[in-house]
Design brief:
heterodimer, A: Hypothetical Protein Pfu-838710-001, CHAD domain, 3 domains, eleven-stranded antiparallel β-sheet, B: Rossmann fold, eight-stranded mixed β-sheet, 8 strands
Amino acid sequence: MAPDLAGFMADSSDPQTWDDITSAVLGALAMEFDVGPERPGISALGGVRRTTWLDTFDWRLHKAGLTLEYLPARGGSELRLSGGGADQGAAQLVTGWQASRPHPPTALAGGPVGVRIAGLVAPRALIPIATTSTVTTAYRLMNKDGKTVAKLLVEQPSLVRPQPGQGAGPRQPVPLPVRLTITEVRGYQGQARRATRLIAAVPGVTPTTSPLFADALAALGRRPGDYSNKVDAAITASMPAARAAAAILLRLLDTIEANVPGTVADIDTEFLHDLRVSVRRTRSALKLFGDALGLSAQELAFFAGEFKWVGDLTTPTRDLDVHLLDFEETVRGLAAAKPDDLEPFRAYLEQRRRKEFRALTRGLRSARFTSLIQQWRTKLVEIQQDSAGRARVSRIRSGQPHKAGGGTADMLAAERTRVAFAKVARRGAAITRDTPAEALHDLRKRCKELRYALEFFAPLHDPAGYAKVVGDLKRLQDCLGEFQDTEVQIGEIKALAAAMLAAREAPAVTLLAMGEITAGLAARQRTARADFERRFAAFADVAGQRRMSALLRGGTA
Amino acid sequence: MRIYATYNIKGGVGKTTTAVNLGYLAAESGLRTVLWDLDPQGAASFMFRVKPKVKGGGKALISGKRPLDDAIKGTDFDNLDLIPADFTYRNMDLLLDAGDAKPADVPGGKPARKLSKLLNPLADEYDAAFLDCPPSVSLVSENVLHAADVIVVPLIPTTLSVRTLEQLSDFVGELKGHRPEVLAFFSMVDRRKKLHKEITEKLAGERYEVAQTIIPALSVIETMSVERAPVTVFAPSSAAAKAYRALWAELREREAA
């Protein structure tokens, strides 16, 4: 049997019409073929098939051009990976897989699918995105000798149920448009083509190459890649500054809200990470251009304080996540100590995390958090609506000293990014080999603010100039991040060692192994410090300053 | 790819029904299977409702002008394809002998291995090939014996058929190089006939190459040409279908042993 020749689907969204369309297709085919149902037990083509599509919350498989399906079956359930080139496909039998639950990539360890995707997916979990149940009826198209020369598959799929963590959706199965496929029989291609032409002429039928997954997602009101932690607010240069600022903050709020269910359910560590990043960006945005929103100083201070509270709420769990995520690599890096020496440390980290996670979820389920999110959204929507139509006024004012909230988005972007860059350039230039570490930590914060300023207003910038500036800045940030994170980790490990000692949970070999880790971190910190000068020069030397100026003028250097 | 050939010097002993039913059972068990109807009468092609016609005829296939792959037709059943018969196969001896300096009467010469060579490219695509041979002793049958891993020989329980099996075994024994296994079985057996009963019991007990399974003479087998399908498809619970299933199981067991 050759592969599918052509697919069609009902172009009406009204399920009432689908049976009529199928009847019309069978009628059209009967003009040239004897059409009969496939005999039961003879072919594997008919029957009921359930399919669950899996991906990470941030669509890592989709972005890599891959599709992962879970196909439950009595004889052996299977995960099937497809796409990404002819040799990228893989299948893996799985037992005890629960289609409605998220699974960590380690659940596939050792199998062919696991091998292909583990590096791409980790540390994210595989989440069921959509499940369909498809009833397939196969028909034989026969010639005058009663020989089957092609087959028609009539597939009636339905969306089984919404997936967890994606809000309320339809509870009853939702019928999806009927699909019709002509399948070739080897050696009879001409007849299959003829059958295809007959179907194409039936009113209400349209050719399709779109996968069933696309229909299932559409029925869920979703599209592939609909989540990203990027700040890609729809802003334009001439938009009123207040409206642009509100749009950026609303986009950040969407990301915060999108990550709360996954964080509370502890599906994977990246939910909390994305939530934290969005909270941090919100705080930086308030600092950078909060005044442009037109809120009172009291209101601004309230929201800034509340988001600081959320940020602080997430810190302990995230810090422990970082230790645990890096644990295997840390163990591999040990020279003197044995991996087992660190097991009490891991157990201690896990125990601490459980405790901190409980506190985190209490906070995220609290009335204070819910109220903050509601109030913030209401306020931002109000600002967006109020500021509509101010662009004309602000153009007249252009050239005048900018007043917060009165100008356009491009004016706000240029002014605030310039200020942020000036701070980085000035403070970075003052750093010498003898400057205390605190100055580098401070510079890291300023760099973060500058990066956010650039990212918030990215749609207004020339893409090539933006990519160069952000690339250089990112390398400087990585260097400063390594310098500070290693210092923080050293401090944390020392504190954890002290706490373990106090709790009498610290064998001597474990403390020695922890000492070895801190030594390794200290070496990395020294390397980062030595690298600083070169990284800073690449970003903020004379050429770097020119590039930034050109970017903010709306061109390239 | 395992190659099975249904063969007997005599005609009308059940070669085609065996090839059709065992081919179907192989496919049903999940083996990707192709059946080549080498008999110019085209009975196997008829059973699968495929026209007994190959573009360019046997000449194009045997000469290699047209790859075997091109002639393959899908049957109505999953995993089972067919290379149809063609009336020009009646001259297959001549076709196999054409273009070679070595005369056909040199045992094991190139002409005797042409079919084997033609089948080689199918090895990636199929797990099992069935060759349904015309009744004769000829260059075609010599080719089949060279190509096959297993020769499946239907025997009618007569004294003469015992002689046929001995002749075939001797011939296979004389082959140089690759020698197929021989599995004979009694077909068209009427247990009410004393002679049938005596011969089947005696030979199955005495000779290892004779299968324990017998295929009885049943009218449902004859209706295959009316139904134009394997008996295992249109009468899956019949005694005939059960007998062919038992024969396929015994064949697989012997191969595994």
